[in-house]
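Person: At home tonight, work slowly through the protein below, taking as long as you need, and write a paragraph about the fold.
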Amino acid sequence: MTSTLTPIKILSTLAVRNVLNEIAPDYVRRTGRMLEMTFAATLQIRDKILGGARADITIMTANAVDEFERSGILVAGGRVDLVGSDIGLAIRQGDAVPDVSTVDALKAALVQARAVAYSERGASGVYFSGLLKKLGIADEINARAVIIPEGLTGTRLVSGEADFAVQQMSELMQVPGINIFAKLPQAVQETTIFSIGIFKDAQDKRAVAELIAFLRSPAVTTMLRDQGLDPLSAAA
């Protein structure tokens, strides 16, 4: 029987895609309410919202949620911090694992790589692009880098286009057949906070609150942790 309940629409970062896709069938069984989910890099979500796209909730960087709360598109004070996410490093299966234990070692490994894949519009890629400049190797790396506008950088390892991929740990984990061997050294690590924001014109605020509580439940928290994310809060 088709549900008569209005679906909850979600605009979400790729970082939590695996978990949302996994919990969606169970959520429908529990509530009878469908989840309509659109996934993209944070800057793409931002552009969609600026272009008029609306949903019930969004999951994106905390800074972006704050921006849209200030502009009145999201409910002021409604931000719920969901997870912290570190930037990871991956290589092709079977390749020698490089030393990235220090900033100098990371710099050397990047310079020696044939091609580094990172995302142009994701939170990790925006940070990594700036890091390359700080390390003084941006021109050298970008001359042969595989910079993707959206999607998962690990797929470029599988295709053979790159031999070094940089992205959020949870996004690297969505690509089978690669070796996620390390995170960025702590001295240059960037932990991104991904937060939930509630659209001001959300259709059913009560249903949205119930979904947010579900996303913070112990069961979902465990799933988030298993995807390389650091849950920031959990509902009782």
